[in-house]
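Weekly puzzle thread! Below is a chain. First person to post its structure in token form gets bragging rights.
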Amino acid sequence: MVMSLLLRFVMKKINQVFVVGFPRSGTSLLQSVIASHPDVMGFTESHYFFHRYICPFDKLGLSVPLSDVFFVRRPRFDRKIIRRFFDENQIQYSYDELSSISYSSDMDHYWMAKMDKAALHANKNTWSEKSTVHLRRIPVIKKISHQAKFVHLIRRFPAVFHSWEKASLKYKLDYFSRPKRIVNKQWRRDIKRSQYYCTHDPTNHHLVTYEELCRDPHAVLGSIMNFLALKQVDIDLCLQLRVAGDLTVKKEEKWKINVKRGIHTCSTFDCAGAGEDEEIYKMIKLKFR
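Winning reply:
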């Protein structure tokens, strides 16, 4: 109980930001844009809450919020996931300390508090973490930390699937070899999740589109700074992105190599879709313009 109270006290000192969206939508690029701000510390992908919790209704095809109302902790959780994440981001911890944390919500508070401390140690008042799957664990994250904020990125499905196929062919990853109809079904569900959260809780959720991110990253960063209450800065963003990309993308993630090279090298392929997919996208885009 004492540990939990101490951890929650630390968590109140730092702004916690989660970058979410559908895979291959440009979330790694958006994370680099946010991490280029001098007051923000960027972390690599963790998938922490996805590994920790499962949603029994996740595969039933229910609409939000019905699909996201009930979560349970997974019966087994490998603490190596936490250690690997801490090591990748040079977050100090001790093996004994981690082993002493209970399997209850104390572990969740411990994980977030460690990132808070790392940000404070680096003289940052905000940290950002990007895991696309955290879009499907938002209720859990909000339960752990009420002040957590989310930046959502959406992108047209034809462009998403084009990037999906390129990754599959070039890097031979099983994850990206899913049939188009399955990818499209999940894309629709996730984009509607973003719409739901940004509509019902605009104080804690902010929407960005991929074309805006590529066309005018300075304007996107400006809107995000306002959303996160960060100080306005005048920086050469494109030069900063290369540094931020080096910090937020793992060495083995070769399919994200363009993020490390800067925003000018990232794909601008964003052709309009057709039929219902395009109507869904346009409706959400216009609503939050």
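Puzzle host: Confirmed. Bonus trivia for everyone else. Residues 2-151+214-267 form one domain.
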